[in-house]
Amino acid sequence: MTMLTRAEIGALGERLATDHLIGLGLRILARNWRCRYGELDVIAADPTTGTVVFVEVKTRTGDGFGGLAQAVTAQKARRLRRLAAIWLAGQERRWAAVRIDVIGVRIGRRRTPEISHLQGVG
C-alpha cells in the first residue's frame, strides 16, 4: 500500500464525503470554497427542501484525535457559521433553510472507509 500524504488523505476524505452527499440526493455547489477568513470544505443543496448545507469534512486514519463529536468545537462551529454567512451574502438565491453538517471519514488500512454524518451541528 502506498503511503498517502496528509493532503492526499484529506482530499480522499472530501471526495468520499461528496460521493456520500450525492448518494443522499444533494447537489454539490462548491468544494474547498475559500475567503480571507477560512475555507468551507463542501457546500451542497438539498433540492427537495431548498436547504443549503455547509459540510465540514474530518478525515482520520485512526481514533487518535477523538471521535466526530469532538471534532467541531464551539469555536469551530462559530467559524463555520461566519464563513457560511459570508458565502450566503454573495449569493443571489435565497434558501428556505441553512444547515451545518459534519462528515467523518475513517480510512483504515484493511477496511473500506467508514462514513459518519452528523446533521445540524452548528
Q: Quick one: biggest sheet?
A: 5 strands, mixed
Low-confidence spans: none
Measured distance between first and last alpha carbons: 37 Å
CATH overall fold name: Trna Endonuclease, Chain: A, domain 1
User: What is the tally of beta strands?
Assistant: 5
Question: What's the mean pLDDT score?
Answer: 88
Number of domains: 1
- Identify the CATH architecture: 3-Layer(aba) Sandwich
Number of helices: 2
Under the CATH scheme, which class? Alpha Beta
Categorize the overall geometry.
globular
Helix content: 25-40%
How much of the sequence lies in strands comes to: 35-45%
The structural class is: alpha+beta
Written description of the protein model:
This protein has one domain (6-118): Trna Endonuclease, Chain: A, domain 1 (3-Layer(aba) Sandwich), CATH 3.40.1350. 28% of the residues lie in helices and 35% in strands. The protein has helices spanning 6-23, 74-89; strands at residues 27-35, 38-46, 51-60, 97-106, 114-118. It has a five-stranded mixed beta sheet with strand order 1-2-3-4-5, sandwiched between helices. The N and C termini lie far apart (37 Å). 22% of the residues are buried.
